[in-house]
Amino acid sequence: MPAPTATTATTYMLTQDPSPGTPIEPTSSEIKQGPNPLPKLFQPLKIRSTTFKNRLWVSPMCMYSAEDGFINDFHLARYGQFAMHGAGAVLIEATGVLPEGRLTPKCLGVWKDEHITGLRRIVDYEHYFGAAVRIQLAHAGRKASTIPLSQYGKRPSFRASVDEGGWPEDVYGPSALAYDDNHWEPKEMTLGQIETVQQAFADAAVRADKAGFDFIEIHSAHGCLISSFNSPLSNHRTDKYGGSFENRTRFAVETVQRVRNVWLAEKPLFIRFSTTEWVEGGWTTQDSIKLAEILYQEGVDLVDCSSAGNDTRQKIPVGRGYQVPLATEVKNGAPGVLVGAVGIITDGEQANDILEQDKADAIFAGHEFLRDPTFALKAAQRLGVFVKWNDQYERGRPKTRHSFI
């Protein structure tokens, strides 16, 4: 038999059934399955045609490791480890729908068909381990053309120049208002540019489907283009895309409509909100509830509830689980809308309590997965749930609850 090549190596992968992170009955009679009913964190969640095996999901986190938007081996290794270790869903980082829509020159992209093959490689690998996989479609707006996070603090400005691969002349937003002195001053978008960007989101959704993604999340948080349209602090337009709540959110609604029109009806559609800006006179949780109700009618299934990132005057009460109440307010205020909770969620008991108390429907964890890719397996261990391990790693399973922690 010839040695495996780069194109044939994946034929050696066998889909694992059940997949890692799925609660199962132990094969040994000496071990008993945990609580009955199962803790909610490890109960499946079905949204449209996608069944999530558990509710502990990997948040999108920019890695600033791409060239011309293309996936590479770093991304395969990074995202693969989460699926191998039982995460219910893996969320690919903010991916630019246009080259000038990237946050930095090193961000991922999905603005051309050539990107599909690399993205498909990630999706296929995640599916071997039974994880649902999602792409976050994004346009950075006035925060575009900046330097990667690893370079912060090493220079006075975040602005990426042309020599550094940036595009200062193609940074735009709802109004000509810079985020701060460290970012480029954007140009106010024309109606033609708004049309172009909205179509780019739709075209990116088509490519995401061709790459095999199970669901999409539209990025409308942290001062990116859509969230900056929503906010009265960054949107000073006087046309149909500015002024009233209806006008400021028109960009978001129309973009969702375009994406939903091309995204298969059986596939879930999520959106990430900055639920509040933490600035007096800015976007509020009540605004998010109102917009969530509108977008639910347009086919959005779940709101991923983050906050802040659009105004430097923000005063954020950071602490353990500090953003969970925002998700709860949206859940209670917009019946029918599923919500995801984020914000310093660091162990299985905390994550499960959020769900058991009906404060959210799913947990998005970011930094804890960076610190420990086995977070889902450890959460199961702490909750006394016996879950399937990756076949190749099964012999590493702890023998007692406390030997893993």
UniProtKB/TrEMBL annotation:
Cofactor(s) the record lists: FMN
Domain NADH:flavin oxidoreductase/NADH oxidase N-terminal: 40-383
InterPro entries: Aldolase_TIM, OxRdtase_FMN_N, YqjM-like
Keyword Iron-sulfur: no
Biased composition (Polar residues): 12-31
Amino acid composition bias (Low complexity), ranges on this chain: 1-11
GO MF term (any one): FMN binding
A Pfam short name: Oxidored_FMN
Annotated region described as Disordered, given as residue ranges: 1-38
Signal sequence coordinates: none
Keywords linked to the UniProt accession: Flavoprotein, FMN, NADP, Oxidoreductase
PANTHER family: NADPH DEHYDROGENASE C23G7.10C-RELATED
Protein name, per record: NADH:flavin oxidoreductase/NADH oxidase
Record lineage: Eukaryota, Fungi, Fungi incertae sedis, Zoopagomycota, Kickxellomycotina
